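Hey, I'm writing a tutorial for new members on how sequence and structure tokens pair up, and I'd like a real worked example in the thread rather than a made-up one. If someone can provide the structure for the chain below, I'll link this post from the tutorial.
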Amino acid sequence: MASVRVAGRYITNSLSPEPFKAFIPYPLPPEPPLNLSGTNPSTVTAALTRLEDLGIVREVTSRRRDKLYSYEKYIHLLNEGTEPLAR
């Protein structure tokens, strides 16, 4: 049977003027960390290149080695609702 990994928890607050329920994701990186030992570097490069071609990730360093990729849709999702309130 496959295990289900919980990505966070919900909190509720009924004491505020407007009660709410919020999802609080667990911090990144995941525990236990991803184990990529033994993974062929060309396989990883090919996968990241394909994800970039599909517009899923974006390379943000412009370096030839030790590149860093961003999954912008996820970052935007995490930032959603954190904008300052209009006064």
